[in-house]
Amino acid sequence: MNSNVMQNYRQLIKNLSSYPQVAVAYSGGVDSTVLVYGACEAIGPANVLVLHATSCLLSADVSKNAERVIEETFDPLLRFKKIAVNPMAQDIFIKNDPSRCYYCKHMIYTSLIEEMEKEGIAVLIDGTNCDDLRDHRPGLRALKELGVKTPFVESNITKSEIRIIAASVGLSNAELPSNSCLATRIAQNQKIDHATLTDIETMEHFLRQRDFLGCRVRPRQGFVILEIQEPDFLKITDRNERIKIRNYFQKHGFDKVLLDIIGRL
Length: 265
What we know:
The protein has helices at about 5-15, 30-45, 60-75, 90-95, 100-120, 140-145, 150-155, 160-170, 195-210, 235, 240-250, and strands at about 20-25, 50-55, 80-85, 125, 215-220, 225, 255-260. By secondary structure, the protein is of the alpha/beta class. It folds into 2 domains: about 5-170, 3-Layer(aba) Sandwich (Rossmann fold); about 195-260, GMP Synthetase, Chain A, domain 3. A 4-stranded parallel sheet has the order 3-2-1-4, with helices on both faces. It is globular and about 55 Å long.
């Protein structure tokens, strides 16, 4: 870690040390994993409760990997709980209007808060970082309304600094591509349904099996848009690879397979 990152990380530990116990909203990504690591260092693993919300919005691969990281990385004293949530029970979520993320985040974090209160914990922390504040993220309003703490923001830590910290302390998912819920692949104002979410999960799993990690599949009417990471563009220029991908998606009902030429970082 360079001096600036180390200074911000020390501030993070100082901020977390002010809480006797915390619950961490844990997605399995590098941000929330570093937050769990920092909380354990600050107040000890016995005082940290990791809450992982599971639903149809999270692929089985992601959820399985999230649990594996906790089991392989942290002290057994750390408590880990899966909380099943059902965003599809909300008509306002299914509608998929511009505020969808707010409704969903509010519902999920309300469930996490209810669970942590059963454990006698008063503080829920989240892995939002300073870079997230620059994007349009309706879900951040839900965090503010529910009183969820964002220690990375309070400690002036960015996404790139989180990855530096993760690599420095040896976290296995330090280079894990960023992820988001499956509903983000569906066009705004197009209703969300279980079948579409399942199809997206299946198609992204196909691409990951072909080593296109961090991919996105965005189905549209009659065609599909693929987003891949910048280093994977050379791989997809291979004609045989393109044919296999095209044939797969055509079997799933998409006449055209389009590639977003702006790679995911």
